[in-house]
Design a protein that fits this description.
Blueprint (H helix, E strand, L loop, with lengths): L3 E7 L4 E4 L5 E14 L5 E13 L1 H9 L5 E15 L2 E15 L1
Parallel strand pairs: 4-6
Antiparallel strand pairs: 1-3, 1-5, 2-3, 3-4, 5-6
């Protein structure tokens, strides 16, 4: 099963692109925080950054409301893809958004 649920904040303004077939995509990064106890029992916090890709109706929502610092809940799936940049193959993993809730 490929299922991702994240709650966090958008870390920068979303970027919007139009594919050659006319389909639009919104790409943005999201930060989540993890709280845990270290080996001495002290509370520690760690941030994780996630690369996100949204299609369809979520592009319009992000165009209108997406901004840095916005807290969102995301449901989606992890995808991996390759592309060519300056003659070298680049590998990318990102979360493809299926559902987005502004908190």
């Amino acid at each position: 099963m490929n299922h991702v649920n994240l709650i966090g904040k958008i870390t920068a303004q979303p970027r919007f692109y139009e594919m050659p077939n006319g389909r639009k995509i919104a790409q943005f990064t999201m930060a989540t925080k993890e709280t845990f106890l270290d080996e001495k029992g002290n509370t520690k916090k760690k941030s994780h950054w996630h690369r996100m890709a949204a299609w369809g109706r979520w592009v319009q929502v992000l165009e209108e409301l997406g901004q840095e610092g916005l807290e969102v809940a995301i449901e989606g799936k992890l995808i991996s893809r390759f592309y060519q940049r300056n003659g070298s193959k680049q590998f990318v993993s990102e979360v493809e958004v299926n559902d987005l809730i502004i908190l």
